[in-house]
């Protein structure tokens, strides 16, 4: 008979919001957002028509370039030098080689029964 405050506390649902460090990363933008070709096409059409909208479309293109620069600068690993990347790649390849060797050793011990298909 939990009719007091302790009984109500046990019935409260947990908060639906996860802690800040567990939030998933934002989804990448759709591929169309990376294309500059439609804006360039619009600029060419405006220039052919001697339209006054060319400045507006040029500003849209400029803004698109600025957005892409921000996106690129926020990418993980963008500050890693090519030499550091090569070193990381070499380390990872060495780990894979070592793990493959260990796997072969374990398989040769015949401690595991591997079903044959």
From TrEMBL:
<keyword id="KW-0805">Transcription regulation</keyword>
<comment type="function">
    <text>Component of the Mediator complex, a coactivator involved in the regulated transcription of nearly all RNA polymerase II-dependent genes. Mediator functions as a bridge to convey information from gene-specific regulatory proteins to the basal RNA polymerase II transcription machinery. Mediator is recruited to promoters by direct interactions with regulatory proteins and serves as a scaffold for the assembly of a functional preinitiation complex with RNA polymerase II and the general transcription factors.</text>
</comment>
<keyword id="KW-0804">Transcription</keyword>
<dbReference type="GO" id="GO:0003712">
    <property type="term" value="F:transcription coregulator activity"/>
</dbReference>
<keyword id="KW-0175">Coiled coil</keyword>
<feature type="region of interest" description="Disordered">
    <location>
        <begin position="1"/>
        <end position="32"/>
    </location>
</feature>
<dbReference type="GO" id="GO:0016592">
    <property type="term" value="C:mediator complex"/>
</dbReference>
<dbReference type="GO" id="GO:0006357">
    <property type="term" value="P:regulation of transcription by RNA polymerase II"/>
</dbReference>
<keyword id="KW-0539">Nucleus</keyword>
<comment type="similarity">
    <text>Belongs to the Mediator complex subunit 9 family.</text>
</comment>
<dbReference type="InterPro" id="IPR039242">
    <property type="entry name" value="MED9_metazoa"/>
</dbReference>
<protein>
    <recommendedName>
        <fullName>Mediator of RNA polymerase II transcription subunit 9</fullName>
    </recommendedName>
</protein>
<feature type="compositionally biased region" description="Pro residues">
    <location>
        <begin position="13"/>
        <end position="29"/>
    </location>
</feature>
<dbReference type="Pfam" id="PF07544">
    <property type="entry name" value="Med9"/>
</dbReference>
<dbReference type="InterPro" id="IPR011425">
    <property type="entry name" value="Med9"/>
</dbReference>
<keyword id="KW-0010">Activator</keyword>
<comment type="subunit">
    <text>Component of the Mediator complex.</text>
</comment>
<dbReference type="InterPro" id="IPR037212">
    <property type="entry name" value="Med7/Med21-like"/>
</dbReference>
């Amino acid at each position: 008979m939990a009719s007091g405050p302790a009984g109500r506390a046990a019935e409260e649902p947990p908060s639906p919001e996860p802690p800040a460090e567990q939030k998933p990363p934002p989804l990448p933008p759709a591929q169309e957002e990376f294309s500059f070709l439609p804006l360039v096409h619009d600029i060419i059409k405006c220039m052919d028509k001697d339209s006054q909208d060319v400045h507006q479309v040029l500003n849209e293109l400029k803004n698109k370039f600025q957005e892409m620069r921000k996106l690129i600068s926020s990418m993980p690993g963008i500050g890693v030098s090519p030499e550091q990347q090569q070193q990381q790649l070499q380390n990872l390849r060495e780990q894979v080689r070592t793990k493959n060797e260990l796997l072969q050793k374990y398989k040769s011990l015949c401690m595991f029964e591997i079903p044959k298909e």
